[in-house]
Specification:
The chain has about 450 residues and is α/β, with parallel strands linked by helices. It has helices spanning about 5-20, 30-35, 65, 75-85, 100-110, 120-135, 150-155, 195-205, 225-235, 285-290, 305-320, 325-345, 365-380, 395-420; strands spanning about 40-45, 50, 55-60, 115-120, 140-145, 185-190, 210-215, 240-245, 265-270, 280-285, 350, 360, 385. Strands 4-10-9-8-7-5-6 form a 7-stranded mixed beta sheet, with helices on both faces. Helix 9 links the parallel strand 7 (about 210-215) and strand 8 (about 240-245). The longest helix has 22 residues, at about 325-345. The radius of gyration is 22 Å and the shape is globular. About 45% of the residues are buried.
């Protein structure tokens, strides 16, 4: 029987009238998944199961709240810790000692770092990290690679040329509201391209405050590429910042850079650090982090208790239960499902991403149409699904088995349409093709 999601869709239409864009996070806009059909809102969630406003239960095999919940939704251990601190008062005139406990726990996982500072989101934390580096060097320019949020320092890369962020965020991303005077302050370099990095580093050196790198996402980094960046930054005393907001905790306990044996001067975390509660983390070397005292960096909600309690509970749970290895193992199973079904159905599938954060697309000009159709048909099978699947430990073997069965049915449908003389997925989609998508940032 065909399932309808009228309540979720109608609520989204109402929301568009009073909230610009309808939602607070671009990555959760229904248009990115399945325009005109996406359930849009949830009533409750547990593990990897979501109950929609139409009272339909779905299994979440998408990016799972952009990778924020590696322990699964409503993890009882983390929730209990958060509830306990709420009962004692979430904030007061005096400070919470959990701030110190949280800092020590994260620093212990990164022996190269000596100090920590906290915010409430990853974008904020990246902005703080860049501010600290600029204060330390007393220079303005930033050399970057990857996706680093919505703040002025980053989006200003598109002021003079609207194509600068095409390989890092969205094609032609708008820069309205950002002071034109910031144009030329942030300069992108190409991922895994040593020649491009060296050229732009030398050109910018006199005014360079820091180098910012997201060390992996769609692809693993080339070790020589990262070592070259580290070498140049060390030689010229330029702070190297690693953006671990998406990667951190998913691939290893701590940051992805630990697997490279290459340490930055500053690292930034958020998302998986707290299993869905608000916290951004900036850690780094003392001589650089102390430059924060030379700039006004302060916010009332950075002092509240919930984020610290959630981070402590989440990180301790990860340590005890070897979560990163489990996520990698589950991710490999998902990759194998996509790869084998692609071959079985003679589809030009491209499977990418680090193992715990896998993605797939089709090597075809109609890939967006094919993924939209995939999402539509998987929804009929009871799954939220698209071209990404960020694993949670709540994705059990039984869930993955059901996902594989559903995928096998849908891939056969895709193959049948794909191998027709006049391939036309649009006529099989009950709405518009997905749009306003993020590019794979690196």
């Amino acid at each position: 029987m065909k399932k309808k999601y009228n309540k979720g869709q109608n609520l989204y239409k109402k929301t568009l009238k009073i909230i610009p864009g309808g939602v607070q996070l671009l990555s959760k806009r229904p248009e990115i998944f399945l325009p005109d059909q996406w359930p849009s809102y949830y009533k409750s969630a547990k593990g990897c199961e979501i109950l929609t406003y139409d009272n339909i239960k779905l299994y979440d095999f998408t990016n799972c709240s952009v990778g924020m919940c590696p322990l699964g939704y409503a993890n009882p251990v983390v929730n209990k810790s958060v509830i306990n601190v709420i009962k004692k008062a979430n904030t007061t005139t005096l400070n919470t000692y959990l701030e110190y406990d949280c800092a020590k726990l994260i620093l212990n996982a990164h022996p190269w770092a000596e100090m920590a500072k906290f915010t409430k989101s990853g974008g904020e934390a990246m902005s703080v990290a860049v501010r600290i580096a600029r204060a330390f060097k007393k220079k303005d320019k930033v050399l970057f690679c990857g996706y680093h949020g919505w703040y002025d320092w980053y989006i200003s890369a598109n002021l003079k040329n609207t194509n600068k962020l095409n390989e890092h965020l969205l094609p032609g991303i708008a820069s309205g509201g950002i002071p034109k005077s910031l144009g030329g302050m942030t300069i992108p370099f190409e991922f895994n391209n040593e020649k491009d990095f060296k050229l732009k580093f030398k050109r910018s050196l006199k005014k360079l405050s820091c180098v910012v790198l997201e060390p992996a996402r769609t692809r693993h980094c080339d070790l020589n590429f990262v070592k070259t960046i580290r070498k140049y930054c060390s030689k010229y005393n330029i702070p190297l910042i690693f953006d671990e907001i998406t990667l951190g905790w998913h691939y290893t306990l701590g940051g992805y850079h630990k697997t490279l044996n290459v340490n930055p001067d500053i690292a930034v975390f958020s998302k998986g650090t707290t299993n869905g509660f608000a916290l951004g983390v900036v850690i780094g070397k003392k001589k650089i982090m102390n430059a924060a005292l030379e700039s006004f960096i302060s916010s009332a909600y950075w002092t509240e208790n919930i984020g610290y309690a959630a981070a402590i509970a989440t990180i301790n749970y990860m340590k005890k239960n070897n979560v990163s290895k489990k996520l990698i193992s589950k991710g490999r199973k998902i990759k194998n499902i996509w790869t084998s079904l692609g071959k079985e159905n003679s589809l030009p599938i491209l499977v990418r991403g680090i193992d715990s954060l896998p993605t797939f697309s089709f090597d075809n000009q109609k890939s967006d149409e094919m993924i939209t159709y995939f999402t539509q048909e998987m929804l009929k099978e009871g799954f939220l699904a698209h071209g990404q699947c960020y694993l949670m430990i709540s994705h059990t073997d039984e869930h993955i088995k059901r996902y594989k069965y559903a995928c096998s049915k849908v891939f056969k449908k895709i193959s049948k349409i794909f191998h027709q003389n006049n391939v036309n997925f649009k006529k099989h989609i009950n709405g518009r093709v997905k749009f306003a998508k993020f590019k794979n940032p690196v």
